[in-house]
Design a protein that fits this description.
The chain is 36% helix and 15% strand. By secondary structure, the chain is α/β, with parallel strands linked by helices. Strand 11 and strand 12 form a beta hairpin. The chain folds into two domains: 145 residues, Alpha-Beta Complex (Aspartate Aminotransferase, domain 1), CATH 3.90.1150.10; 273 residues, Type I PLP-dependent aspartate aminotransferase-like (Major domain) (Aspartate Aminotransferase, domain 2), CATH 3.40.640.10. The chain has a seven-stranded mixed β-sheet with strand order 4-10-9-8-7-5-6, sandwiched between helices. A four-stranded mixed β-sheet has the order 1-2-3-13. It has a four-stranded antiparallel β-sheet with strand order 11-12-15-14, with helices on one face. The chain binds pyridoxal-5'-phosphate (PLP). Pyridoxal-5'-phosphate (PLP) binds next to helix 5.
């Protein structure tokens, strides 16, 4: 199909995600037709270095991998689909290999998006509350700045005002607690001189709500779209001890961090913490197939088979496309490629290189107020003034990412998360990235900031 036809069909008929379409009346959308390694090609034949793994932390192995395609094709020839009330070979095998990486978590529930995986986790908590502790432990605490998905339940547990505005009313029983970003400490403290108030705030919220009403807390291990926020080392152990004290389940949302992005198999494994529920999606099959999982402890799972005589006792949930076998087949292959090619080592080595380069850029450009990250998951927060920390405007941030794009380097930015505070540049190249790629990415950002400030 000609480039012109693709673009006209897109302009006429596609409603793009997170897009104000007025601009596309006078400009063409970027339509990508091919990818190989770290590079994607648009319909005009222009090539771009992708520092975003597909825009949203997904194509973690890079593009155009025949080994991934072959694994999926082989599975589709055997059997493409079977409803999740039955078993499948890749479903069984991937669940085994995945839970080998998550000690203390032994059960895998399949679905097909990050939002859906989180909804499953919430439904487990809500249903468990009915037959546990007098039916009251149903509330779910989430954190300001975290994102847990696009569906109304997942959005009800999201702490990003611009993402939420106009989509209410939200589901009841979701309660917010403060974020843990030291650069913008909600308690006005400094790390080293504080008492990790951001973690202890969980206890305050549990007490305010009533401990017998709180079922779980859902947290990103490192907040992603909310600004790449790794907590301090003390944070998660405090959170876990509060959860244990009040019999509250700890649900960690690994939709972005899962399967290697931070240099460990899971983001939470950078910290001393044992979750009860883990959800993951995005990079799980490196974008070659849709899959998400809700992984639970055996203790959570056991609760749903205690009373077989009661038709309401089992988890009465389903996900049609959770039965597509391409998902676990692709996830299994992804896992084996990461192991076989020692890609976690590359994530750590290249991640260190990337963050060092960002720190160098920070020394050069006063608008870089803060640099944060772990592994190949980094952010640079842009400010008008380092002293006041006033966020750089959305327009200026867009000008910087737009300049990079013009120069054929795709970097990310926080997008429509917070009113007047979408000011974090996002860097998440695929796990196969090299020093040369990172040098090109940094050079593009350096030029973009120089030209636009
Ligand atoms: C931390 C986190 N959780 C959940 C989701 C929702 O995932 P999905 O878009 O696959 O529904 C996202 C998506 O960006 C995310 O970043």
């Amino acid at each position: 199909m000609s480039d012109h036809t693709i673009i006209q069909n897109d302009k006429k008929h596609v409603w793009h995600h997170l897009t104000q379409h007025k601009a596309l009346e006078t400009a063409d959308p970027l339509v990508f037709v091919k990818g190989k390694g770290m590079v994607v090609t648009d319909s005009k034949g222009d090539e771009y270095l992708d520092a975003t793994s597909g825009g949203v932390w997904t194509v973690n192995l890079g593009y155009g991998r025949d080994d991934m395609v072959d694994a999926i094709a082989d599975q589709l020839r055997d059997i493409p689909y079977i409803a999740g009330s039955f078993g499948s070979e890749p479903g069984a095998q991937f669940a085994k290999e995945l839970t080998d990486l998550t000690p203390g978590l032994d059960r895998v529930y399949y679905s097909n998006s990050g939002s859906e995986a989180n909804e499953k986790g919430y439904k487990m908590v809500r249903q468990r509350a009915h037959s546990y502790n007098g039916g009251k432990k149903h509330k779910i605490i989430y954190r300001d700045r975290d994102y847990h998905g696009t569906t109304i339940g997942a959005l009800s547990s999201t702490g990003q005002n611009q993402r939420k505005t106009q989509y209410g009313p939200f589901a009841p029983g979701f309660v917010e607690m403060p974020h843990c970003c030291c650069y913008r400490c909600p308690f006005g403290k400094k790390y080293g001189e504080c008492n990790i108030e951001c973690a202890h705030a969980l206890e305050t919220v549990i007490q305010q709500e009533g401990p017998d009403t709180v079922g779980s807390v859902v947290l990103e291990p490192i907040t992603a779209g909310g600004g790449v926020i790794p907590p301090v080392p003390e944070y998660f152990p405090i959170i876990e001890s509060i959860c244990r004290k009040y019999d509250v389940l700890l649900h960690i949302d690994e939709v972005v961090c899962g399967l290697g992005r931070t240099g460990k198999w899971f983001g939470y494994q950078n910290y001393e913490v044992q979750p009860d529920i883990v959800t993951t999606a995005k990079g799980l099959a490196a974008g070659y197939a849709a899959i998400s999982v809700t992984i639970t402890s055996e203790k959570v799972f056991e609760h749903f088979k205690q009373n077989p005589a009661d038709p309401l006792s089992s988890f009465r949930d389903i996900s049609t496309f959770g039965g597509c076998t391409a998902g676990p087949a692709a996830a299994l292959k992804t896992l084996n490629i990461i192991k076989g090619e020692n890609l976690l080592d590359n994530v750590n080595t290249m991640g260190d290189y990337l963050i060092d380069k960002l720190f160098e850029l920070q020394e050069k450009h006063p608008i870089i107020g803060d640099v944060r990250g772990k592994g190949l998951f980094c952010g640079a927060e842009l400010v008008k003034d380092r002293k006041t920390k006033e966020p750089l405007s959305d327009e200026s941030v867009i000008a910087i990412t737009g300049h990079c794009l013009k120069n054929k380097v795709m970097i990310g930015r926080s997008n429509r998360n917070f009113v007047n505070a979408n000011n974090v540049l996002l860097f998440s190249p695929a796990f196969i990235t090299t020093k040369n790629d990172i040098d090109s990415i940094i050079q593009a950002v350096d030029n973009a900031i120089t030209e636009n400030t």
